[in-house]
Amino acid sequence: MSQYLTPALTGQIINLLAAVLLLLSFAMLAQRRILSLIDLFAAQGFVLTLSTAFVAWATGQTHLWWSAGLTFLLKVLLLPWILHRLIRRLNVKWDVETLINIPTTMLFGLLLVILAFNLAQPVSRSRARSPRAPSASRSRLSCSRS
After folding, report:
1. Which helix (H) or strand (E) holds 138?
2. Which of 57, 69, 99, 106 has the smallest CB count inside 10 Å?
3. How far from chain centre, in Å, is Cα 71?
4. Which of 12, 23, 81, 80 is nearest to 47 (CA)?
5. By the 8 A CB rule, do 86 and 71 touch?
6. pLDDT number for residue 49
7. Integer angstrom CA distances of residue 123 from 6, 37, 110, 126, 141
8. Model pTM above 0.85
9. Span 93-110, pLDDT tens digits
10. Are 51 and 17 in contact (CB under 8 A)?
C-alpha cells in the first residue's frame, strides 16, 4: 500500500465505491429503456470490479483479484454483449412497460436499503466489540506494503 493511502482513506474510497454502486442501483430502478438498463448494468459491474480490485490491492488478498477479473469478464463484457445481441435478434421493444410507477419503485428500493442497513448494523457493532484480536482484513489494511 502506498504511503499516501492511510487506512482511513482506504475506508473512504471503499465507502465511495459502495455509494456509487447504490446510486447505480437506484438509477437502474428508475430506468425504463432496455438498452440504457443494460448499460447501467455494465457500469455497475465495472464499479464492482473497481471496488473488488481496490480491496484486493489494499489487503493483499490475491483471491479477490480472481473475483474482480471474473466480474469484469462476465458482468461488464460478456452479459451486456449477449443481452444487446438478443435484443437485436428478437427485435425487442425498447421501452419496458411497468406494473408499478417509478416513484413507488424508488420508495420500495429506499425501504429495502434502510432495512438492509438496519440488519447489518448490529452485526458490525458486535464485530467491533469482539474481545478477540483485530480481524485479518483490518490488520492488513494497517500494514504497509513494500
Report:
1. helix 136-142
2. 99
3. 11
4. 23
5. no
6. 98
7. 25, 33, 21, 5, 20
8. no
9. 777 777 788 888 889 999
10. yes
